[in-house]
Amino acid sequence: MSMLRTIKPKNARVKRALDEREPKAVENEKTAIFVRGQNTSEKVRSAMKDLYALKRPHAVNFSRKNPIHPFEDASSLEFFASKNDASLFLTGLHSKKRPDNLVFTRMFDGRVLDMMELGIDQIKEMSEFESVKASVGVRPLMVFHSDLFDTHPTYQQLKSHLLDMYNGHPLAEIPLTTIEHVISITAGPASDVVPLPKVHLRVYTIKLLASGSRIPRVQLTEMGPSIDFSVRRIQEADSEMMKAALKRPKLAKTDVEKGLGKKRKNIETDEMGDRVGRLHVGKQDLNKMQGRKMKGLKVRKDKAASGGGADAEAGAGADEDMEGDE
Amino acid sequence: MDVSKELQEYAENHTTATIERAVPVEVDAGLLAAFDTTPVEAEAYSTSLEPHLLALTLTSTHSLLSSLFSLPTHSTPSGPTALLPTPTTLLPREKPLPKPKPLTKWERFAKEKGISHKKREKHEWDEERGEWVARWGRDGKNREKEDQWIHEVKAGEDADQDPAMTARKARKDRIAKNERQHARNLADAASAAAASGPFKVDGAGPSKSASKSTSTSASGGGSSISQAAKVSLRAVRKAELERSMLVSKTSTASLGKFDKAIEGEPRAKGVKRKFEANEDVQGEKDRQLQLLKGVERGRGRRPRGGREARARREG
Questions:
Q1: Range of the domain at B186
Q2: Which terminus of chain A, N or C, has less C-beta within 10 A?
């Protein structure tokens, strides 16, 4: 924050934009920033491209590389977060020591909450799968397999990160016909030889088939990307900070039912499915309507205010003319 | 042309078979997520990874979808819409909970006295003109006195004073006063925010928390004070640094007399020693008596070692 000036709003538009960034009881969807480090590999670039495609439209892709090492110094991430009002980061890096590296970073109140480093072992891009892709902005389903996501702290954090990235913003309702794809995350079986097993990310499109009952049968087709991760470094969240981040607001039930504290007045959806707004415009006064502007018909402000003079009479004459036209 | 392999692959990719689960798949419908907590079978995992992953996904997706489809729905233009419950999995927020707006001095006073807020409308009725006029702003009624061409001069008032100018000055003073009060309210709110950050800096002085914030922002780790608090603490920290610089400058044997001065450096002003006047006999007597009284009552210096040492000596 220190690098940014504190902006004092000079007009209503700027004020609205700044108010939008203030803490809210019911939050907006988190924006993710996808940023490349100084060196990246082909694998990292394609993984970031596909993960970005899944996160769109709540994602910003930085096209240039930045000298970032989140585990060493996250100050530039904090700067990006405050500048873009974003709180999720995916940094792609590649080095001899840690090849094909992805770093997931989460922010709280403009500061780093926790970080997670994953190495890409194998990747098959989305474009390599010849299948229909899910539409942009459609909410995915997410499924996690393995007991590790329930028991192992590292995998719990990984689950939290991925859920937060793609499904973190709770919806009030979902049209059942818009369910298009599922993100499946599976951790391999843990053993003494492999204490931190690989994590497999797969994305499938869903086809719902009639089953004769209310609940349909499911058919899955892989859509990509298909990525195998290995878990590397993690930075756990500060317990105080996490506690503050997990606080829930107390909302009245009626507020929750009425669209979570957001005023929705005069907006309806008509039979055609179009959103219709109702505006209230005051009754039009034709006497006040501006007619043709001429020097002779000019109403001078000071004389009009005092309520007399020849100009006011001229104005009245103009009004009569207009009524005659109708 | 043999397409059996392709057909088999296609069938594998489009299968709808699910695996039996002893432990049912946990579903968090609010987040559209499902968690299968059964350990992954090592054999199936190592021999046929992709089909196994697909089967696992099918199983969990099926149970997630069945719980989604059994939720209460209502029909919308875009088809039946399921009303989602509140999520059970806790995920961190992006920003802290909004704090209630700090009360202004007047609001605090009104609350104490039980005065309820009465909103004044912007327009008021003007009897003379017979129309609604603005209280302030353009053509505001608060400028009425300044614009009128004749003024009543009351008995005892200065004959050569300008009533319009007096009214204008009074209005401008009111505006200035209001701005002063507004600035003070803002300053009070900022200092209150600095004193109690989001995760209270317990009892730590401003210097301690400020150094904490600077060190953590450099390392990028989790500091425990908010952004707003940092800004106001920086001013305190700056004043403290200036003071310590001044002290260190005069801490040489020659009180910094022979040190090289940096160009444009402000002259360090020390504390001037103050001597009591020699003639003031009564004052001197009072001070000495005060000192003696203190000795009499035993209010001297505490013995070295503090409370614990004393307790040890006594007990």
A1: 165-249
A2: C
